[in-house]
């Protein structure tokens, strides 16, 4: 057998993995398309028509490299948040930014704290730098602020992850609770506050913008409320030196020219955002009603999905999800112990929720072995 | 002073840097736009009209996440190269893939070999993992295959970088020379063969496709000949296990849905590519003539730019570049000793090369202090 170039010790031990298998991969395996795509918390209503028009308009310009400073988009984002351009960094979605944060703050063996069952892509990036993941169970379907804090202190963790509103449960903390959590953190622990769903929940869940703390990075995205998941664009905001530190390792030409233009146009159409937020709220209500009508328990949600307690164990909820998939309805479910009793359904278009409503009784009956 | 979360030791020592300052940043600083954008080796002719139409068509679809497997684009690329899907990995441009390769094969203190004055973004990524860059001077304006090989052996380097055709000199080696270089490399040294300009030079410069070697990764891009620099999409091909290893750390949702569609459409329009390659060859000829007419020495080029020996030292060529910038003509220049006597001019549109031709005599006279 020929010798091979060795991978670095950290990378060598990692599994080959995809944190999320996409619906396209499932469709290829199944050999047929889904009838309802309500599993990836995408915004089925799509981006603003103005954004779509703008993307079409700049298609021809893609021969030019993107601005590596993402300047225009940063200016627009900074104005939107009421902070300085120096407080913003743009990345290839929150995923890309999480990868950078892991590399910046966690070395081999360093403890990194998150909730058990929280965003797997963060865990993937922590593993990729050899970080040691310390997980804290959810409490009553919310990330446990006290538990996270205890773990951070116990492990002297340099990095902790919290999403608010939360995925996969849809739960949230009010801003004052988050603020207390931030204030209680050791100064030497960096908090990544993932607010991917921030625009879709109650405004009272979002702490006031404050970019003075050297141990806080907040992240938002154009993938959710702005309907641009495919374009790969998110941003982080924080204290200026923290933001400058991203310059040390980020892929400066990582965010496409198209994404920068689309993001800017999306921010500019806040009327569309308001419309969409209302539609999402109605969709959540609809999903909750369907769950109720079938004797299941929908959890309160501050996101564009509803997590539904199927009233059994993980095995049962797994059967419900599989039943939906076999009926060509793409949904997902939480997998961590305690959370795994649930399925997770994204707000889709009306006809997609119709299909979900039609199929649910049969799926439940089959899962119950009736 | 409040304490701060410490950066990892490797990241802490790095400078905050942008490997390439974009023309947009220069325009912001100058307070006015360039009249000719012929400095970033972009394809001024733009992508195929079919690609542009396709991008406009799918703008609305961007509410969906991208396929994390980049499957359709991989199928198209594999067919194009005559290899298997398992031999292809797609990334956020070659830049993104270079970042992954650095993380896969170079740890803190590991020697990584490249040419002095070769692609700075590779060096940036090597620095970001704490790698120790070992540079080999060009010889007669080509990357020195023998010098690189000597350095690899001397330093027991796990990773070496070679671009063919080369940037910033535009020079190239014929395929048989590259094949000899590959065969002579230690089995435990990974070669990154950057073929970003591969479609633009003589076919005889590209080794036959062979994905059996565990120590070779070849990279190509949609940024150059396909005119999609802004969309951020490149690919690497190689032995299946090497390609699988990217799964351990890559950002699976890094390449936008738009980029995947655009890349596929670009590959499908080989007639446009042939047209563009001919236009680029004519443009090179034009730039060479302009240089000749002004008593400068254009170097032979297998790319979409011509590097021009200004006949003086680095200081003189620097004045020529600055003169062009001050006349609103965006060009760049090599900076390494020996190469720095040159400026680098990309094939632009006819009217841009007209402006270059008009301004060159005055710029040269000013640089000479006449």
TrEMBL record, chains A, B:
InterPro entries: Aminotrans_II_pyridoxalP_BS (IPR001917), Aminotransferase_I/II_large (IPR004839), HistidinolP_aminotransfase (IPR050106), PyrdxlP-dep_Trfase (IPR015424), PyrdxlP-dep_Trfase_major (IPR015421), PyrdxlP-dep_Trfase_small (IPR015422). GO terms for molecular function: transaminase activity. Keywords: Aminotransferase, Pyridoxal phosphate, Transferase. Pfam families: Aminotran_1_2. CDD domains: AAT_like (cd00609). Its cofactor is pyridoxal 5'-phosphate. Residues 39-358 form the Aminotransferase class I/classII large domain. PROSITE patterns: AA_TRANSFER_CLASS_2 (PS00599). Pathway: Amino-acid biosynthesis. Coiled coil: none annotated. The keyword Lipoprotein does not apply. This is Pyridoxal phosphate-dependent aminotransferase. Belongs to the class-II pyridoxal-phosphate-dependent aminotransferase family. Histidinol-phosphate aminotransferase subfamily.
């Amino acid at each position: 057998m020929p010798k091979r170039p060795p991978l670095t010790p950290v990378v060598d031990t990692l599994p080959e993995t995809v944190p999320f298998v996409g619906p396209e991969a499932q469709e290829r395996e199944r050999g047929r398309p889904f009838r309802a795509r309500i599993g990836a918390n995408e915004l089925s209503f799509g981006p603003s028509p103005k954004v779509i028009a703008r993307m079409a308009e700049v298609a021809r310009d893609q021969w030019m490299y993107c601005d590596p400073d993402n300047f225009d988009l940063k200016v627009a984002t900074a104005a939107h948040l009421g902070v300085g351009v120096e407080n913003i960094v743009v990345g290839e979605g929150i995923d890309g930014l999480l990868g950078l944060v892991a590399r910046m703050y966690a070395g081999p063996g360093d403890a990194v704290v998150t909730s058990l069952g929280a965003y797997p892509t963060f865990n993937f990036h922590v593993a990729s730098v050899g970080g040691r993941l310390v997980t804290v169970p959810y409490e009553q379907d919310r990330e446990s602020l006290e538990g996270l804090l205890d773990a951070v202190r116990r492990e002297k963790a340099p990095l902790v992850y919290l999403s608010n509103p939360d995925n996969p449960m849809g739960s949230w903390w009010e801003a004052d609770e988050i603020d207390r959590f931030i204030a209680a953190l050791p100064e030497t622990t960096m908090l990544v506050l993932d607010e991917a769903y921030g625009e879709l929940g109650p405004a009272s869940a979002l702490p006031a913008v404050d970019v003075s703390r050297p141990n806080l990075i907040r992240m938002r995205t154009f993938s959710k409320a702005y309907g641009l998941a495919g374009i790969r664009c998110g941003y982080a905001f924080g204290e200026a030196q923290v933001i400058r530190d991203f310059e040390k390792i980020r892929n400066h030409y990582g965010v496409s020219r198209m994404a920068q233009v689309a993001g800017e146009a999306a921010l500019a159409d806040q009327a569309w955002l308001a419309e969409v937020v209302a539609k999402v709220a109605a969709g959540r209500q609809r999903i909750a009603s369907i769950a109720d009508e079938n004797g299941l328990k929908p959890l309160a949600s501050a996101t564009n999905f509803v997590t539904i307690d199927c009233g059994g164990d993980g095995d049962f909820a797994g059967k419900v999800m599989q039943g939906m998939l076999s009926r060509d309805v793409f949904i997902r479910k939480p997998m961590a112990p305690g959370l795994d009793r649930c399925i997770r359904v994204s707000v889709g278009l009306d006809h997609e929720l119709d299909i979900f409503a039609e199929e649910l009784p049969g799926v439940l009956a089959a899962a119950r072995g009736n």
